[in-house]
Amino acid sequence: MSSTYLYLYLLLLLPPLSSPQSFHWGSCHSPQVQEDFRLDQYLGRWYLIQKMPAFFAPGKCISANYSLSEEGGLQVLTSQSYWDRKWVVEGEAVILDRNQPAKLSLNFFYIAPLSPTWVLSTDYDSYSVVYSCTDVLGVFHLDYGWILSRSASLPPDVLHRGEELLRHLGVDASKMQEVEQDCEEEGSITFSQSGLSMT
Fold this sequence. Notes:
mainly beta; Lipocalin; eight-stranded antiparallel beta barrel; ApolipopD; disulfide bond
C-alpha cells in the first residue's frame, strides 16, 4: 500500500489519539494462552463487545474476520463504523511460533511492525478473550484487552469472566468500554494492499 493511504488513514483518526491508553512500567507479561488452539475453528467473524480505549479503534460496530487467503496465508479484515461510514482495513495474521499458534501477530498496511494478538481463552463458538502488549524502549509497555463474540452480544457472566482474566494480567478492566453493534452506514472506505477504494 502506498504510504499516502496510510497517512490519510492515520490523519482521519487523529482526534481519538487523546483517548487514555494503558501504560505500565516494565516489560510485557508472558501470559498463558489458549491450550491446543485450533486456528481452523477460530476462522470467521468476531464482533468486538468490550475493548480498552485505543486510537486505532475509535468507532462502533467493530469486527474482525479471519480467513485463509488464496496464497495459503491468514487474512484478517477489520471493520468499524466511524463518521457514518464503514472503514475496512485489510491485513494479515502470522503465527511466528508453530508451537504456540494462539499467539498471532497482525500486520496492517504491510509496512507497520507486527502487532502481537494473543488468544487467552475461547470456546470458538461464542466468545474470545484477546490480549496485546507492546514493549516501548524496554522501559514501559502498552497493553490492550478485547472481549469478542460470534454474535453482537454476550451474557454478563461471560463478560465478567473475560474481564477477570484480563485483570489478572494487570489490564485495568475498569477502563473497558462497551462497543455498540447497531450502526447505519452511508458507504464504505477500504484500505488494502492494492490501495484505497470507496463506495
